[in-house]
Amino acid sequence: MAVITIRETGQTETGFNAVLVIDGSNYQITVSDPFAPSEEQELEWYFEQWLRRPILE
Questions:
Q1: What is the mean pLDDT of each run of 10 residues along the chain (57 residues)?
Q2: How many whole angstroms separate alpha carbon 33 and alpha carbon 47?
Q3: Is the pTM of this model over 0.70?
């Protein structure tokens, strides 16, 4: 079974840089938020409100 490790190496304006290690092989990656603020608000509504009281129509 492969061992996967993600190690943060520094912060950027939109997220952070990291090293992804898979079975000893290193890969430089950048992790950032994929959503715009309006999309995040829609997801927040869906997961925090709609799933509690779904609209049936």
A1: 93 94 95 89 83 62
A2: 17
A3: no
- Report how far residue 18's alpha carbon sits from residue 30's, in angstroms, rounded to the nearest whole number: 6
In the numeric block, the tokens 């603020």 are attached to 37
Q: What is the 3-state secondary structure (H, E, C) of 1-57?
A: CCCEEEEEEEECCCEEEEEEEECCEEEEEEEECCCCHHHHHHHHHHHHHHCCCCCCC
Greatest pairwise CA separation for the chain in angstroms: 52
CA distance 54 to 56: 6
